[in-house]
Amino acid sequence: MATRRKHGFVRQWALASLGACFLVALPGSSWAAEPIDLPVPPVVQSALLGSVKFDLESEVKLEYRVNVSQVSIGIYDVIYDVNYQIRPSLGAKLVRASGSVTPFKMAENVGVQSPVYQTWSDILQLNTFTQQEVFPVWFYKDFSGFLPEPFFTNKTSFLIGFRADLEDGRHYGWLKFSRPDTLFPRPFTLDAWDWNPVPDQPIQAGLPPAIPLAGAVVKNESDQPVLRLSWPQAVSAWTLESSTNLAPPIQWEYYPTGGAGVDVPLPAEGEPQRYFRLRKP
């Protein structure tokens, strides 16, 4: 058995008996480690893991990255600092659920009332740890507890809100991150994201945007009564669908339009009533 002190921590290992298994340093003041099976390889290079860009612009507004720096190379070991980050840029900001809570609950509104997430860099830091290779064994030490708000440490998923200033105004959206377990070296995956294409309108976290579909009975150019449907120009490329029955499973059918509105003939006597929805292509 050998013991070696480095960076103020004491580590113990027995290379002959442990072989190539992964080790994780438990929280506390020492590097005394216990074996843990990590079916993902150690992270040794920085990488872009996901990004967000919008229909109206080609620039990336948000990035999900892992930053890896090699802080020490010894005769027998190599030490890496690893940090996962959500980085806004180019007119985008992360927003919080409240002044003291960053993640949003499912269906919680992300909108003008959501305070901006502010740090010196506006970067939201996630998993932060040190990994150390003493060939052929890896040791891990969790430093997430030193972050300003380590809300993610005991979670397998969470929702983050954002806002982005585009050419037509300010838009709100959400990001969903998940992972299969709560092992601290286990990275989150950017599973999904969505945004409200209508400027200055909120979106419910984890859900698609609610687009207002206005309808009124008017007379058309032929002096015939019609149902005039209209919706915001920002979603003029969305698809209008129709159904005559809302009993599941609902069969939605494409309904032709002229952009951000359409005149629908009123049903004749004996014909079924018709329901409409907008669907993002």
Could you please describe the fold and organization of this structure?
- The structure is a single chain.
- The chain has 281 residues and is mainly beta.
- It has one helix at residues 15-18; strands at residues 2-6, 9-13, 23-25, 31-35, 47-53, 60-73, 77-88, 92-95, 109-110, 124-134, 137-142, 157-166, 169-178, 189-195, 203-204, 214-219, 225-230, 239-243, 253-254, 261-265, 275-279.
**What sequence of helices (H) and strands (E) makes up the elements?**
EEHEEEEEEEEEEEEEEEEEEE
Radius of gyration: 26 Å
Structural class: mainly beta
| Number of structural domains | 2
Number of helical segments?
Answer: 1
Identify the quaternary structure here: single chain
Task: Order the strands across the largest sheet as they lie in space.
Answer: 5-6-7-10-11
Summarize the structure.
With about 280 residues, the protein is mainly beta.
Write the layout of secondary structure elements.
Layout: E1 2-6, E2 9-13, H1 15-18, E3 23-25, E4 31-35, E5 47-53, E6 60-73, E7 77-88, E8 92-95, E9 109-110, E10 124-134, E11 137-142, E12 157-166, E13 169-178, E14 189-195, E15 203-204, E16 214-219, E17 225-230, E18 239-243, E19 253-254, E20 261-265, E21 275-279
Parallel strand pairs: 2-4
Antiparallel strand pairs: 1-2, 3-4, 5-6, 6-7, 7-10, 8-12, 9-15, 10-11, 12-13, 13-14, 16-17, 17-20, 18-19, 18-21
